[in-house]
Target: CoA pyrophosphatase
Amino acid sequence: MNEPMLKKMEAAPINSTEFFARTKTRLNFDVPPGLVDPNIIPKTGDAGNDRMLEIVAREQPVRPAAVLIPVVNHREPTVLLTQRSPHLSSHAGQISFPGGKIDATDASPLDAALREAEEEIGLKREFIEPIGYLDLYGTAFGFRILPTVARVKPGFDLTINEGEVVDAFEVPLAFLMNPENHQIHAKEFRGIERSFYAMPFAERYIWGATAGILRVLYERIYLA
Model:
């Protein structure tokens, strides 16, 4: 792994009212066809990642998934994240959003994200105001992840399903949306150099798809 670098795309901070106003204006619930179509490759803006996703799409079946980006509407908003259980077969111990694969019984990706949030951490739907889908995000494991940005009313109680996650915690939105905290690292995929984001916060190492999706949120809401 190389030394962290900082991407030089910056935007002025915005307050919570402006953040939610922008998300409502810029996001919607149109489901992108690339969620299930292997011939539509999600674009990442990184040549190495784009090449990797092309290879993965040829070799693996598409695995549609949905996650919830729960922005808790405190005076200073936070994002509710989870730490996956260490015994899981994939991404064990990593920091993630509530979410998982889309089941045939789910009415929509939104429904899948809400179901998974309730199953994993006991976040009840009555506390959640869905706002819209963020851009489709592809991974090296064949997942096509459709994130739902949501405003979450404070006052909820969580019940952790330790078979899936071992912890749930909040990180200030201002920290996650500050580009000074967006490190870029590089690794190889079959001889192809590809980049990934990391956003270390205290003892938490937020990286990979979670950090990548947060970066997309920053670019859509703060830079667009």
Summary: The domain at 16-223 is CATH 3.90.79.10 (Nucleoside Triphosphate Pyrophosphohydrolase). The chain has a mean pLDDT of 90.
